[in-house]
Specification:
The complex is a heterodimer of chains A (276) and B (566). With 276 residues, chain A is an alpha/beta fold. Chain A has ten helices and eight strands. In chain A, helix 5 crosses helix 6 and helix 7 crosses helix 8. The longest helix of chain A has 14 residues. The chains are: A alpha/beta (276), B mainly alpha (566). Chains A and B meet through helix 1, helix 2, strand 4, helix 5 and helix 10 of A and helix 15, helix 22 and helix 28 of B.
Chain lengths: 276, 566
Amino acid sequence: MRAQTGALYAKITAERSANRFGVDVLQLSDISPAIDFQKKGGYELHVSPEHAAYKPAYQSTPAGHFTWAGVTFAGIAYNRSKVKAEQAPKTWKDILSATHKDGISAKLSTSGMQHMQWYTLRKLYGADFWQEFAKQRPKGFDSRAQLFDRLAKGDDRVCALAEYGGYTLFKEKGAEIDFVAPPDGLPATPALIGVVNRAPHPEAAKLFVDWALSNRGQSVYQTQTILLYGSVRTDAPPMATGKKLADFKLLFPSDWTDFQASHGAFVKEWNALMGL
Amino acid sequence: MESRARARRLWPGPRLVSLLVGGAAAVLVLYPIAFLLQASLSVGDPQARPPEAYGLGNFADLPRYGHIFANTVSVAVAATVMAVVFGFVMGWILSRTNVPGRGALEQLMALPYYVTPLMGALAWSLIGSPSGGFLNQVWRAVGGESHLIDVTTPYGIAWVMALFEGSVAFVMIGAVMKSMDPALEEASQVLGAGRLRTMLRITLPLVLPGVLGAAIFVFAEMLGSFSAALVLGLPSRFYVVTTAMYQLVSQYPPQFPRAAAMGVSLFGVMFAMVYVYRRIIRAGSYATITGKAFRPRVMDVAGLRWPLLALCGAYLGIAVVLPVVTLLYASFQRLATAFPRASNFTLANYETALSLDAVRTALWDSLLLGLGTASIGVVLMGFLAWMIYRSRLPGVGAIEYVLMFPQAVPRLVFAFGMLWAWLIFPIPIYGTLWLLLIAYLTVFLPLGLRTIAGVMLQIDRSLEESAQMCGASWGYRMRTVTMPLLRPGLIAAWLLLFIASVRELGASILLMGPKAKVITPTIVESWFSTSTELTAAMALLQTLAVSVALVLLFTMARRATQPAGE
């Protein structure tokens, strides 16, 4: 089953509080619920043989609760037929340009990736950055597919949270869009996978996680177009585009505890910014 | 003789049956509502179950969403007015006049209801988005400036809601009109009233309970409408209660208490609507089916036949043909555009949709559930309608209010009440199709009840009373008098329940499990994670499957009910 993080996590925690255990493996694209789930004893400790290929930074503390199954990262994208080359954004601060007002999109506060962008760019440019962005009257959506669908059709001119996976998916379809990797870096967020405690099929769950973290599994994560994630394995092959994660300057929080603590402030500011 | 008398003594009387059925239906509704109320009063950790602390903080916080409530009411009123006007005019033309091709037109008119609201919204997004909309692309190609239409405005959203979620009004009003004695209209015309005057002064007042029932139902449906507001509202930063709630429960940590408080606050609106409805139907008699025999006849509208046919054609063109053709056109493209290159055309979307095992299984489960919900629902809701409007048993008014609860709160939120309620239920039905069946029977109680009640109110009590005077037992009266007269309403209810079940989204998203998947959430998931084009292909396949299933079911039913030798 796939759902927005909040709804999915709520369903699973409600089931578990009623002593119903129907989930084998859980993959979340937001670290806050993953840590909450770990605190609640939700994960089955499983140190996969594949962990040797993952740096400790890409594993839970202690290892075995969850692991980074992949990383998604975002730059800026724009529609070439709607934005002239000289007006195309090149840096993050360019998304504040008045030329993009009422034509720019991002994700809603349901997104872990959006939280990451809010946090990392706030660290780089200060709290006023997003208040300036609010003046653009950005439009918010739930998924990368929606963002790029609108961008490709010209309904939005610029996407301020353009995940690389979305860009490759729509580029392959022939969309007239370009991806910009601002020199200050690209906010990135992990997809966290782990075996669930009291899973109905515990051995199959462990085998699945082993496969997902293996080179074979990671090549699927890196090449399947719908939900592309880059691999953090030390020996990861390149993505379908020929690029590796290491080819991009990725932005992660230096203090994950502070990042998690900022979630409430993010939701409040982002909801207001999106007109909710 | 003695054994028959003993059997009659053992057979439960109407009071006991009413108590059992009414009580069971009330429990179905109140059990999850109790959990929802509990959540709305939770002021501790929003994720904690059961709540850590209770208070009214979530309700006190609601005024900050005042603009969202105002958006919701304005768009729901606009959509209801449009839907009821369309439903009444089309219902009158196709039920009461001799417009050519009525049978076929009537079938086609229900088509928008076969399509999931998400698909209707996607289709109109493809047609009328300011920049990428096909119509606006054509407009610019012929020299127009900017855009011709914009469906992302509140009126655009109301328009799409009226077309796809309000098409139920046509079915409900049409069923009432079919049960009307034409002698009343004929008498009006004999006395010199014109056709329009007859429609406004005779037809409209007589079908008022049906129209009001449809209006109340449609208004409540619009308050809980989700798909059109999600697809067309977000691009213009226009939030309604359902999309706001969806954001609240989808974010981490999910804000259930606040979403539940928003949902519970809608109960007040629904109570007011039911109160008004009951006051109106008590104020007058709307019986059009009396002891006097009549044959349903249509009015000869002479030269007006062709303009009325053109009106029906125009409605069908806008509500059915244009969206379906647009989706079809988009589903054969890699990236949908009004003027595609040859290389943009592909069959890949259909190949992908048909290759997904989840789609095949989900479609079958959905059809199975639709059949179960419609068949059980018609019996259950038919009985409940009789109980509320005919039985004169004490407390039936309260039961009507209770049964309207599921309509008052958006299904996504109601589904959380059901999730919490049925998770702790000792019989292990959670995660099975049985739970979805129970959920559908619960959330569609208002739909079935309103549809059948509209027709039931037209049947004069004297018919049942005459049978009673002649010594017919309650069961015999139901079987030989009430049920045959209710037939149009029951058929309409069955059809509506079947389609509503197959396209249900809000409750299914949370209650389906790995072994009980249904199709609409699968389609929505496709929209979230893939593309409009693949989603269009999947939804068209769903519509096709539903249509084929309905044709087969009606053919089989017609054969089964045909007298031998005919």
